[in-house]
Specification:
The protein is an alpha/beta fold. Helices cover about 25% and strands about 25% of the residues. The strands form two sheets. It has a nine-stranded mixed beta sheet with strand order 10-9-8-7-11-6-12-14-13, sandwiched between helices. The protein has a five-stranded mixed beta sheet with strand order 2-1-3-4-5, sandwiched between helices. α3 packs parallel to α4. It is elongated.
Length: about 375
Amino acid sequence: MDTAADITAMRRAITLAARGLGSTSPNPVVGCVITDAAGAVVGEGFHQRAGGPHAEVHALRAAGERARGSTAYVTLEPCDHTGRTGPCSQALLAAGISRVVYAVADPTPGAAGGGDTLRHAGVRAEQGLLADEAEAGNAAWLASVRRGRPYVLWKYAATLDGRIAAADATSRWITSPEARADVHRLRAEADAVLVGSGTARTDDPQLAVRGIDGVTQPLRVVVDTNATAVKPGARVLDDTAPTLVAVADDAPAGHLPEAAVLRLPRAGAGPGLDITALLGALHTRGVRSVLLEGGPTLAGAFVAAGTVDKVVGYLAPVLLGAGPAALADAGISTISRALRLDVTETVRIGPDLRITAVPAPARKGN
Protein backbone atom coordinates (compact mmCIF):
# COMPACT_ATOMS: atom_id res chain seq x y z
CA MET A 1 0.00 0.00 0.00
CA ASP A 2 1.35 3.40 -1.00
CA THR A 3 2.18 5.65 1.95
CA ALA A 4 2.04 9.42 2.29
CA ALA A 5 5.82 9.42 1.98
CA ASP A 6 5.59 7.48 -1.31
CA ILE A 7 3.10 9.99 -2.71
CA THR A 8 5.19 12.97 -1.61
CA ALA A 9 8.33 11.57 -3.23
CA MET A 10 6.59 10.73 -6.50
CA ARG A 11 4.92 14.12 -6.66
CA ARG A 12 8.34 15.70 -6.25
CA ALA A 13 9.62 13.52 -9.10
CA ILE A 14 6.76 14.74 -11.31
CA THR A 15 7.63 18.35 -10.47
CA LEU A 16 11.27 17.72 -11.34
CA ALA A 17 10.34 16.08 -14.66
CA ALA A 18 8.55 19.25 -15.79
CA ARG A 19 11.84 21.13 -15.72
CA GLY A 20 12.87 19.24 -18.85
CA LEU A 21 9.89 20.32 -20.96
CA GLY A 22 11.09 21.65 -24.29
CA SER A 23 14.67 20.40 -24.05
CA THR A 24 14.58 16.58 -24.02
CA SER A 25 12.98 15.70 -27.36
CA PRO A 26 12.86 13.13 -28.82
CA ASN A 27 13.20 11.72 -25.32
CA PRO A 28 10.56 11.98 -22.59
CA VAL A 29 10.64 14.25 -19.56
CA VAL A 30 11.47 12.16 -16.48
CA GLY A 31 12.04 12.93 -12.83
CA CYS A 32 13.60 10.75 -10.12
CA VAL A 33 13.78 11.01 -6.32
CA ILE A 34 15.76 8.63 -4.09
CA THR A 35 14.94 8.24 -0.40
CA ASP A 36 16.77 6.25 2.25
CA ALA A 37 15.26 3.73 4.69
CA ALA A 38 14.14 6.56 6.98
CA GLY A 39 12.34 8.34 4.12
CA ALA A 40 14.86 11.17 3.79
CA VAL A 41 15.66 12.39 0.27
CA VAL A 42 19.26 11.52 -0.57
CA GLY A 43 19.24 12.28 -4.30
CA GLU A 44 17.07 13.70 -7.03
CA GLY A 45 17.36 14.61 -10.68
CA PHE A 46 15.60 15.02 -14.00
CA HIS A 47 16.38 14.34 -17.64
CA GLN A 48 17.75 17.64 -18.87
CA ARG A 49 18.66 17.16 -22.51
CA ALA A 50 18.52 14.43 -25.14
CA GLY A 51 21.83 12.58 -25.19
CA GLY A 52 22.58 13.55 -21.60
CA PRO A 53 22.23 11.48 -18.44
CA HIS A 54 18.76 10.23 -17.59
CA ALA A 55 16.92 11.30 -14.46
CA GLU A 56 17.92 8.17 -12.54
CA VAL A 57 21.61 8.76 -13.24
CA HIS A 58 21.46 12.34 -11.99
CA ALA A 59 19.68 11.19 -8.82
CA LEU A 60 22.11 8.29 -8.24
CA ARG A 61 25.10 10.61 -8.63
CA ALA A 62 23.59 12.95 -6.05
CA ALA A 63 22.89 10.07 -3.66
CA GLY A 64 26.29 8.37 -3.97
CA GLU A 65 26.74 5.53 -1.49
CA ARG A 66 23.50 6.51 0.23
CA ALA A 67 21.62 4.96 -2.69
CA ARG A 68 22.38 1.44 -1.43
CA GLY A 69 19.25 -0.05 0.13
CA SER A 70 17.19 3.02 -0.81
CA THR A 71 13.97 3.54 -2.81
CA ALA A 72 13.90 5.25 -6.21
CA TYR A 73 10.74 7.01 -7.37
CA VAL A 74 10.66 7.53 -11.14
CA THR A 75 7.92 9.07 -13.27
CA LEU A 76 8.56 6.66 -16.17
CA GLU A 77 9.66 3.02 -16.12
CA PRO A 78 13.48 2.90 -16.09
CA CYS A 79 14.78 2.20 -19.58
CA ASP A 80 16.24 -1.22 -20.36
CA HIS A 81 18.28 -0.49 -23.46
CA THR A 82 21.57 1.09 -24.48
CA GLY A 83 21.25 4.18 -26.63
CA ARG A 84 23.32 7.32 -26.22
CA THR A 85 23.35 6.39 -22.54
CA GLY A 86 23.28 3.02 -20.77
CA PRO A 87 20.17 1.29 -19.38
CA CYS A 88 18.85 2.91 -16.21
CA SER A 89 17.66 -0.47 -14.92
CA GLN A 90 21.30 -1.61 -14.72
CA ALA A 91 22.41 1.68 -13.15
CA LEU A 92 19.83 1.23 -10.39
CA LEU A 93 20.94 -2.36 -9.80
CA ALA A 94 24.62 -1.40 -9.70
CA ALA A 95 23.86 1.29 -7.11
CA GLY A 96 22.17 -1.22 -4.83
CA ILE A 97 18.67 0.28 -4.94
CA SER A 98 16.30 -2.12 -3.17
CA ARG A 99 12.94 -0.73 -4.30
CA VAL A 100 11.81 1.13 -7.41
CA VAL A 101 8.43 2.82 -7.73
CA TYR A 102 7.58 4.08 -11.21
CA ALA A 103 4.40 5.83 -12.29
CA VAL A 104 3.98 4.93 -15.98
CA ALA A 105 5.18 1.97 -18.04
CA ASP A 106 7.44 2.87 -20.96
CA PRO A 107 5.48 2.26 -24.20
CA THR A 108 8.63 2.27 -26.37
CA PRO A 109 9.30 -1.29 -27.59
CA GLY A 110 13.08 -0.90 -27.49
CA ALA A 111 13.29 0.73 -24.07
CA ALA A 112 10.52 -1.04 -22.15
CA GLY A 113 11.15 -3.89 -19.76
CA GLY A 114 13.16 -2.15 -17.08
CA GLY A 115 10.59 -3.06 -14.46
CA ASP A 116 10.84 -6.75 -15.25
CA THR A 117 14.64 -6.62 -15.27
CA LEU A 118 14.61 -5.11 -11.79
CA ARG A 119 12.09 -7.67 -10.50
CA HIS A 120 14.10 -10.58 -11.87
CA ALA A 121 17.14 -9.21 -10.04
CA GLY A 122 15.26 -9.20 -6.74
CA VAL A 123 14.36 -5.51 -6.59
CA ARG A 124 10.83 -4.59 -5.49
CA ALA A 125 9.53 -2.80 -8.58
CA GLU A 126 6.06 -1.28 -8.35
CA GLN A 127 4.08 0.51 -11.07
CA GLY A 128 1.17 2.96 -11.06
CA LEU A 129 1.70 5.47 -8.24
CA LEU A 130 0.26 8.85 -9.37
CA ALA A 131 0.09 7.48 -12.90
CA ASP A 132 -2.49 10.04 -14.07
CA GLU A 133 -0.40 12.97 -12.87
CA ALA A 134 2.75 11.56 -14.43
CA GLU A 135 0.89 10.87 -17.70
CA ALA A 136 -0.35 14.47 -17.80
CA GLY A 137 3.16 15.81 -17.30
CA ASN A 138 4.51 13.63 -20.12
CA ALA A 139 1.40 13.73 -22.31
CA ALA A 140 3.08 14.93 -25.48
CA TRP A 141 5.82 12.31 -25.55
CA LEU A 142 3.57 9.43 -24.52
CA ALA A 143 0.93 10.34 -27.13
CA SER A 144 3.59 10.70 -29.80
CA VAL A 145 5.04 7.26 -29.10
CA ARG A 146 1.62 5.62 -29.01
CA ARG A 147 0.27 7.33 -32.14
CA GLY A 148 3.39 7.62 -34.24
CA ARG A 149 2.94 11.35 -34.82
CA PRO A 150 3.63 14.54 -32.87
CA TYR A 151 1.21 15.66 -30.15
CA VAL A 152 -0.61 18.78 -31.34
CA LEU A 153 -1.64 21.64 -29.06
CA TRP A 154 -3.74 24.26 -30.83
CA LYS A 155 -3.44 27.69 -29.25
CA TYR A 156 -5.52 30.70 -30.20
CA ALA A 157 -6.30 34.12 -28.79
CA ALA A 158 -9.71 35.66 -29.36
CA THR A 159 -12.29 38.08 -28.11
CA LEU A 160 -15.13 36.87 -25.95
CA ASP A 161 -17.25 36.54 -29.09
CA GLY A 162 -14.61 34.38 -30.80
CA ARG A 163 -12.98 36.90 -33.14
CA ILE A 164 -9.23 36.84 -33.77
CA ALA A 165 -9.20 40.19 -35.58
CA ALA A 166 -11.48 43.11 -36.36
CA ALA A 167 -13.32 43.53 -39.65
CA ASP A 168 -10.46 45.69 -40.96
CA ALA A 169 -8.00 42.85 -40.13
CA THR A 170 -6.35 44.65 -37.19
CA SER A 171 -5.56 42.28 -34.33
CA ARG A 172 -2.80 43.80 -32.16
CA TRP A 173 -3.39 43.38 -29.38
CA ILE A 174 -6.54 41.45 -28.46
CA THR A 175 -5.08 39.80 -25.38
CA SER A 176 -2.97 41.24 -22.58
CA PRO A 177 0.83 41.28 -22.17
CA GLU A 178 0.41 38.62 -19.48
CA ALA A 179 -1.37 36.30 -21.91
CA ARG A 180 1.20 36.89 -24.62
CA ALA A 181 4.00 36.08 -22.18
CA ASP A 182 2.23 32.84 -21.30
CA VAL A 183 2.23 31.88 -24.98
CA HIS A 184 6.02 32.07 -24.93
CA ARG A 185 5.95 29.48 -22.15
CA LEU A 186 3.95 27.20 -24.46
CA ARG A 187 6.48 27.79 -27.23
CA ALA A 188 9.34 26.96 -24.89
CA GLU A 189 7.72 23.63 -24.02
CA ALA A 190 7.12 22.63 -27.66
CA ASP A 191 9.46 20.99 -30.15
CA ALA A 192 7.95 22.92 -33.06
CA VAL A 193 5.79 26.01 -33.56
CA LEU A 194 3.58 25.89 -36.63
CA VAL A 195 1.64 28.56 -38.55
CA GLY A 196 -0.04 28.81 -41.92
CA SER A 197 0.57 31.01 -44.93
CA GLY A 198 -2.07 33.55 -43.89
CA THR A 199 -0.32 34.23 -40.61
CA ALA A 200 3.08 34.35 -42.31
CA ARG A 201 1.82 36.78 -44.95
CA THR A 202 -0.07 39.08 -42.57
CA ASP A 203 2.15 39.14 -39.48
CA ASP A 204 5.64 38.17 -40.71
CA PRO A 205 6.14 36.42 -37.34
CA GLN A 206 9.52 35.38 -35.97
CA LEU A 207 7.98 32.51 -33.93
CA ALA A 208 10.89 32.45 -31.48
CA VAL A 209 10.64 32.18 -27.70
CA ARG A 210 11.28 35.50 -25.98
CA GLY A 211 11.58 36.44 -22.34
CA ILE A 212 12.71 33.01 -21.07
CA ASP A 213 16.39 32.46 -20.29
CA GLY A 214 18.26 29.36 -21.39
CA VAL A 215 15.46 28.06 -23.59
CA THR A 216 15.93 25.61 -26.46
CA GLN A 217 14.33 27.38 -29.40
CA PRO A 218 11.68 25.23 -31.10
CA LEU A 219 11.71 24.37 -34.77
CA ARG A 220 9.70 26.98 -36.71
CA VAL A 221 7.36 25.55 -39.35
CA VAL A 222 5.32 27.50 -41.88
CA VAL A 223 2.76 25.69 -44.01
CA ASP A 224 3.06 27.64 -47.27
CA THR A 225 1.46 25.30 -49.78
CA ASN A 226 2.15 27.34 -52.93
CA ALA A 227 5.40 28.90 -51.64
CA THR A 228 4.06 32.42 -51.93
CA ALA A 229 3.88 33.68 -48.33
CA VAL A 230 7.44 33.35 -47.05
CA LYS A 231 9.68 35.78 -48.91
CA PRO A 232 13.45 36.23 -48.73
CA GLY A 233 14.20 38.28 -45.64
CA ALA A 234 11.16 37.03 -43.73
CA ARG A 235 11.72 37.07 -39.98
CA VAL A 236 11.06 33.34 -39.75
CA LEU A 237 14.16 32.76 -41.90
CA ASP A 238 16.55 34.49 -39.49
CA ASP A 239 19.16 32.55 -37.52
CA THR A 240 17.30 32.61 -34.19
CA ALA A 241 16.05 29.04 -34.65
CA PRO A 242 15.84 26.37 -37.36
CA THR A 243 12.99 26.71 -39.85
CA LEU A 244 11.05 24.51 -42.25
CA VAL A 245 8.74 25.88 -44.93
CA ALA A 246 6.32 23.13 -45.95
CA VAL A 247 5.33 23.46 -49.61
CA ALA A 248 3.55 21.32 -52.14
CA ASP A 249 5.56 18.86 -54.20
CA ASP A 250 4.90 20.90 -57.33
CA ALA A 251 5.36 24.41 -55.86
CA PRO A 252 8.21 26.58 -57.22
CA ALA A 253 10.36 27.32 -54.16
CA GLY A 254 13.68 28.42 -55.62
CA HIS A 255 13.53 31.68 -53.68
CA LEU A 256 13.71 29.82 -50.35
CA PRO A 257 16.82 28.33 -48.72
CA GLU A 258 17.03 24.75 -49.96
CA ALA A 259 17.63 23.35 -46.47
CA ALA A 260 14.45 25.00 -45.19
CA VAL A 261 12.11 23.55 -47.82
CA LEU A 262 9.97 20.55 -46.88
CA ARG A 263 8.07 19.18 -49.86
CA LEU A 264 4.83 17.34 -49.16
CA PRO A 265 1.82 16.05 -51.12
CA ARG A 266 -1.22 18.24 -51.42
CA ALA A 267 -4.35 17.34 -49.49
CA GLY A 268 -6.53 14.77 -51.15
CA ALA A 269 -9.59 16.99 -50.80
CA GLY A 270 -9.59 20.76 -50.60
CA PRO A 271 -6.67 23.19 -50.52
CA GLY A 272 -3.52 22.85 -48.47
CA LEU A 273 -1.13 20.04 -47.71
CA ASP A 274 -1.73 16.53 -46.45
CA ILE A 275 -1.78 16.99 -42.66
CA THR A 276 -0.91 13.37 -41.96
CA ALA A 277 2.14 13.61 -44.23
CA LEU A 278 3.18 16.85 -42.55
CA LEU A 279 3.02 15.36 -39.07
CA GLY A 280 4.78 12.21 -40.27
CA ALA A 281 7.65 14.24 -41.68
CA LEU A 282 8.01 16.20 -38.44
CA HIS A 283 7.91 13.00 -36.38
CA THR A 284 10.71 11.56 -38.51
CA ARG A 285 12.75 14.65 -37.63
CA GLY A 286 12.34 13.95 -33.92
CA VAL A 287 9.49 16.38 -33.30
CA ARG A 288 7.26 14.99 -30.56
CA SER A 289 5.14 18.06 -29.78
CA VAL A 290 3.74 20.80 -32.01
CA LEU A 291 2.29 24.14 -30.94
CA LEU A 292 -0.20 25.08 -33.65
CA GLU A 293 -0.55 28.85 -33.51
CA GLY A 294 -2.62 29.58 -36.57
CA GLY A 295 -4.37 30.66 -38.42
CA PRO A 296 -8.02 29.62 -38.58
CA THR A 297 -7.77 27.84 -41.95
CA LEU A 298 -4.86 25.67 -40.86
CA ALA A 299 -6.50 25.01 -37.49
CA GLY A 300 -9.63 23.89 -39.33
CA ALA A 301 -7.58 21.46 -41.41
CA PHE A 302 -6.03 19.95 -38.29
CA VAL A 303 -9.42 19.60 -36.59
CA ALA A 304 -10.86 18.02 -39.74
CA ALA A 305 -7.96 15.55 -39.78
CA GLY A 306 -8.59 14.62 -36.15
CA THR A 307 -5.09 15.60 -35.12
CA VAL A 308 -5.71 18.22 -32.41
CA ASP A 309 -4.88 16.72 -29.00
CA LYS A 310 -5.32 19.78 -26.80
CA VAL A 311 -6.79 23.26 -27.17
CA VAL A 312 -5.60 26.31 -25.24
CA GLY A 313 -7.74 29.38 -25.82
CA TYR A 314 -6.94 32.84 -24.47
CA LEU A 315 -10.19 34.79 -24.26
CA ALA A 316 -10.04 38.55 -23.81
CA PRO A 317 -12.96 40.52 -22.28
CA VAL A 318 -13.45 42.28 -25.61
CA LEU A 319 -16.31 42.29 -28.13
CA LEU A 320 -15.97 42.99 -31.85
CA GLY A 321 -19.11 41.57 -33.46
CA ALA A 322 -17.38 41.12 -36.82
CA GLY A 323 -14.10 39.79 -38.14
CA PRO A 324 -12.57 36.37 -38.72
CA ALA A 325 -13.40 33.59 -36.28
CA ALA A 326 -10.77 31.55 -34.44
CA LEU A 327 -11.64 28.39 -36.39
CA ALA A 328 -12.44 28.13 -40.08
CA ASP A 329 -14.11 25.23 -41.89
CA ALA A 330 -13.26 22.02 -40.05
CA GLY A 331 -15.53 19.72 -42.04
CA ILE A 332 -18.26 19.89 -39.40
CA SER A 333 -21.63 20.42 -41.05
CA THR A 334 -24.08 19.56 -38.26
CA ILE A 335 -24.19 19.80 -34.48
CA SER A 336 -24.11 16.03 -34.08
CA ARG A 337 -20.60 16.02 -35.58
CA ALA A 338 -19.25 18.79 -33.38
CA LEU A 339 -15.90 18.14 -31.73
CA ARG A 340 -16.86 18.02 -28.07
CA LEU A 341 -14.20 19.00 -25.55
CA ASP A 342 -13.62 18.37 -21.87
CA VAL A 343 -12.35 21.47 -20.07
CA THR A 344 -9.40 20.54 -17.89
CA GLU A 345 -8.42 23.97 -16.59
CA THR A 346 -9.55 27.59 -16.46
CA VAL A 347 -7.09 30.23 -15.25
CA ARG A 348 -7.08 34.04 -15.12
CA ILE A 349 -4.05 35.42 -16.97
CA GLY A 350 -4.05 39.14 -16.31
CA PRO A 351 -7.48 40.37 -17.46
CA ASP A 352 -7.90 37.38 -19.79
CA LEU A 353 -9.12 33.83 -19.31
CA ARG A 354 -7.06 30.83 -20.39
CA ILE A 355 -9.17 27.76 -21.09
CA THR A 356 -7.52 24.37 -21.62
CA ALA A 357 -9.54 21.51 -23.08
CA VAL A 358 -9.02 18.11 -24.68
CA PRO A 359 -11.23 16.15 -27.08
CA ALA A 360 -13.89 14.31 -25.15
CA PRO A 361 -14.33 10.55 -25.54
CA ALA A 362 -16.93 9.64 -28.13
CA ARG A 363 -20.40 9.58 -26.60
CA LYS A 364 -22.71 6.67 -27.23
CA GLY A 365 -25.32 7.45 -29.79
CA ASN A 366 -23.22 10.08 -31.58
